[in-house]
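Comment thread on ticket #2218

A.B. wrote:
> Attaching the input chain for the structure job we discussed in standup.
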Amino acid sequence: MKTFQYKVTDEVGIHARPAGLLVKEAKGFDSKVTISCNGKSADATKLMAIMSLGVKCGNEVTVTVEGDNEEEVAAQMEKFFQENL
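C.D. wrote:
> Ran it. Output below, let me know if you need it in another format.
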């Protein structure tokens, strides 16, 4: 299992457009990607679950990657977060 923390800098948090991009990105991997924030967690391939986290600007999320190629997938997900959120 590989994890990393990321502080959301998008001024409106994780809203519909970036959540959709996140789901698309996570579905491209064989590993399971989970996002946690404010005591709740969601499968990164489930759009409504991500939206239900209510992640706002300034919130810190924890991303957990489990499965094949954890290091590589975690690095790609971290890059995605930096570029889009």
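A.B. wrote:
> Thanks. Noting for the ticket: Helices lie at 16-27, 47-52, 70-84.
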